[in-house]
Design brief:
Radius of gyration: 19 Å
Structural class: mainly alpha
Strand order of the largest sheet: 1-2
Shape: elongated
Helix content: 55-70%
Number of strands: 2
Length: 183
């Protein structure tokens, strides 16, 4: 993997209990919302309006992450024109690139389905356990020319690792905001 947000290799086994997978899915999705909340606070800080609820909701007016990202980037551009710093602007650009990359992993989870999956290989016994993978109706999530070969599966192990990465990303956004604005 060249970027931390690239899809991890698929698991060798799934989860024997469906509730374990569901709990990990919930953890990942909650952690992503914490990232979005920090981005929301960063937007308000760029705007100079702290935690004003109407400003926070401005950020949330974007229906999907890319729309909210555009709202944030627009306000950041205005801020950096008034307070130029190549270092700070570069740090912001790297931060947004990471958020964009990880949002694709969030989409894997949000649009995935927990189901029984067969694990094992040519020389290994088959094992049927739970994992999250894409829905069969979405051709974008399958290997080209391989209608049944999914691009990803996540067991609770991969999901928990992703939740940890989201928590670290949330911390990066918060640390950036505090370093720039002191709050």
């Amino acid at each position: 993997m060249s970027n931390p947000w690239d899809r991890p290799p698929g698991p060798q086994t799934g989860d024997p209990d469906i509730e374990t997978t569901y709990a990990a899915v919930g953890l990942v999705m909650s952690r992503w919302e914490e990232v979005e909340l920090e981005l929301c606070y960063l937007y308000a800080a760029f705007k100079g309006q702290g935690d004003d609820i109407s400003v926070l909701r401005e950020y949330g007016s974007g229906a999907i992450f890319n729309a909210r990202k555009a709202i944030l980037q627009s306000k950041a551009e205005t801020y950096f024109r008034a307070s130029p710093s190549q270092t700070n602007e570069g740090n912001f650009c790297r931060l947004i690139t990471a958020c964009e990359g990880f949002s694709a992993r969030r989409n894997d989870i949000a649009h995935g389905v927990v189901r029984l999956t067969v694990f094992g290989g040519k020389d290994q016994p088959s094992l049927t356990q739970y994992a999250l993978g894409p829905s069969f109706y979405d051709p974008r999530r399958f290997a080209p020319g391989e209608p049944r070969m999914t691009e990803y599966f996540y067991s609770s192990v991969e999901l928990k690792r992703l939740a940890e990465q989201f928590a670290a990303l949330e911390d990066r956004v918060s640390t950036f905001r505090v370093a720039l604005f002191g709050h």
